[in-house]
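In this section we walk through a basic example: taking a raw amino acid sequence and producing a predicted 3D structure, encoded as discrete structure tokens. The instruction is simple. Fold the sequence below.
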Amino acid sequence: MSPTQHRASGRPTEHKARKRFGQNFLVDERLIHRIVRSIAPRADDNLIEIGPGKGAITGLLLEHCETLNVIELDRDLIPILLAQFAKYTEFNIHQTDALKFDFATLWRDQAPLRIVGNLPYNISTPLIFHLLSYQEKVQDMHFMLQKEVVQRLAAVPGDKNYGRLSIMAQYYCSVENLFEVPPESFQPAPKVDSAIVRLTPHTVLPHPVHHLSKLENLVRTAFSQRRKTLRNSLKALEVNFDDNNFTIDLTKRAENLSLLDYTTLCNEIWPAE
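The resulting token sequence is shown next.
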């Protein structure tokens, strides 16, 4: 067993939320049950929880699915969790940084990953991009995030929240903004509103591109100067837009193009080799 993985029992200790880990512990029982109902865990699920905290959601997940892997960075929370859920023999704790964790190691044949978590606000966006890289091994993901991040994930063209995160998340997944969670549902209460989002990876990508890294660069470049027209903001790509006939209107701004527009433009600039 890895030295960062724990399955033995321990003695619980008092624990105060730590700002450096972005900890805000969910304490609203009504909302906890609502979140778990949205996840709808089943006995044979391959569940992974990121940032279990003191186990507010963990306990309900284990009532439905005895096999649960949790990713927790704060080593001081480990004995609390181990003591609380000692009776579950298939409750495994990986004391590590979720941003560096290889989620593919938890994938099992015929058991795609179902990932849930209350993600720290300070790492939520890079962590989502990290998790999207495992899209083919994931059944769905349910996350508590800052409300603004959920709005960005679910945004549509023309929306002020629409941007790189919207496009890349929707390239891989369908996105559902489920419901909001007010600050008073946590201890300590954060200074921002939260929301629950469901990300369901597409079985077949609706708008695939020939070169994924090119799409990522195209979208990043387009939104780096979102007030400019695409013809001007995309100059950094060193593509001659004057001598080529593109089906996408380059006089538009980045926020006015749909996912299909971006994938179409990407495939026209960089066709299959």
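Looking at the output, two observations stand out. The CA atoms of residues 85 and 219 lie 44 Å apart. The first helix runs from residue 29 to 39. In the next section we compare this with other chains.
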